[in-house]
Write a structure and sequence with these properties.
Order of helices and strands: HEEHEHEHHEEHHEHEEEEEEEEEHHH
Number of domains: 1
Shape: globular
Number of helices: 11
Strand content: 15-25%
Strand order of the largest sheet: 3-11-8-16-7-5-6
Length: 376
């Protein structure tokens, strides 16, 4: 294992198991409950085949090839190592001074739609997708849904680590559009804000013909055994609630193919039409090329769901929204009630000590004893 891979593993795989979490109210009354019970999807993921038509897939790929370069996933969402760790299961080891460059992975992302708006009109039928709306309504057993955002992840063989994570947990007032992902996920793991949680459903689809690169997920909670979505992974998908289910993309490609020397947090990927390859660059310097058949594409479609018109009105009219101040006050009060020695932050969204305290308090680790050496 390389020094780079070992450093990534030190951060992503060192975990603290948190068995209990308190569910709070505005008056500070608490009851103890198991974080592992909180972190389960509303229903087991449903596997589906033939998710997109060949024409839709071709148009999505054409747009991705045309509109690059694309940044790393972490560059979209995180400014510090602590923020990244808060979305997953680990802690930053004491005395280990890391930057996002040290733990960068060659996994790249772009958004096709946000805020219920498709950014590429040629993909309107993919985003405003009646079949997908039917799938997530049936998955939740509710009447109403609206598409919210759509993104893609793109990679070739690379070291991705073995850490599981949650997608951004959405709440009334605290959403992907106005709040950092790490805060949303701490809120989700804490169990303190369930009454404000937004119902979300996803249709996630893979196209990949290479080795490994499967999808591991914990549908029965992080302390239960995981499941794996296995090959073939061509136009195969799941209907799921990824915000409340630990999951991970497994390492892609053969182990000897995964090194990407020179990779940084700021690295980019783009398609080179001259030889039909995918090129990773750092500060304009080419550091890796992939052939088309090595690439793994994931497309993630999300929708928000409502039991009825009254629930939708609470969201759209903002009559019961959380604010960042209320969230941080509740988290701070809960940590102090647990005996955690934490100072009141002056800038809670950027206070490293506060973020570290949140990570240490609201950490739960999926089971890993099932892992075989080949999984690395």
């Amino acid at each position: 294992m390389t020094k780079e891979a070992g450093t990534k593993e030190a951060v992503t795989n060192e975990t603290v198991t948190g068995d209990a979490v308190t569910e709070g109210t505005a008056t500070g009354e608490t009851t103890t409950r198991d974080m592992a019970e909180v972190l389960r999807p509303v229903a087991p993921p449903r596997v589906i085949d033939g998710v997109y038509t060949d024409d839709q897939h071709a148009r999505i790929r054409s747009m991705i090839e045309r509109e690059g370069p694309w940044p790393t996933i972490t560059a979209h969402h995180f400014d510090t190592v602590e923020e990244l760790v808060a979305t997953s299961t680990g802690v930053v080891p004491e005395g280990l001074d890391l930057t996002l460059d040290d733990i960068a992975t060659a996994h790249f992302r772009g958004y096709l739609a946000k805020g219920s708006t498709c950014f590429h009109p040629e993909l309107d039928d993919c985003f405003y997708n009646h079949r997908f709306l039917d799938l997530v309504r049936d998955y939740w057993g509710v009447a109403l849904a609206r598409p919210t955002h759509m993104l893609f992840n793109l990679c070739g063989p690379h070291h991705s680590g073995l850490n599981a994570h949650l997608d951004a947990v959405q709440f009334r007032g605290i959403r992907l559009e106005n709040s950092p992902v790490w805060l949303q996920n701490v809120m989700g793991k804490s169990g303190l804000f369930e009454e404000h949680m937004v119902k979300m459903g996803q249709v996630i689809t893979w196209w990949y013909l290479g080795e490994n690169g499967t999808f591991t997920y914990w549908p029965d909670g992080p302390h239960a055994e995981p499941a794996v979505l296995r090959h073939p992974l061509w136009n195969k998908g799941v209907v799921v609630q990824n915000e409340m289910m630990f999951h991970r993309g497994d390492p892609v490609g053969r182990p000897e193919e995964r090194e990407v020397p020179g990779l940084k947090h700021r690295s980019l990927i783009a398609h080179d039409p001259d030889d039909d390859t995918w090129v990773i660059t750092t500060d304009g310097e080419v550091i890796r090329r992939y052939r088309p058949e090595e690439m793994r594409l994931l497309v993630h479609w999300s929708a928000e769901l409502f039991d009825d018109v009254d629930e939708a009105a609470r969201v759209f009219e903002h009559t019961d929204d959380l604010t960042t101040d209320v969230v941080c006050e509740r988290l701070l009060a809960d940590m102090r009630a647990r005996g955690v020695d934490v100072a009141e932050p002056t800038d809670p969204l950027h206070d490293v000590d506060f973020v570290r305290a949140l990570i240490a308090t609201y950490t739960v680790a999926p089971t890993t004893d099932w892992l075989a050496p080949s999984a690395a």
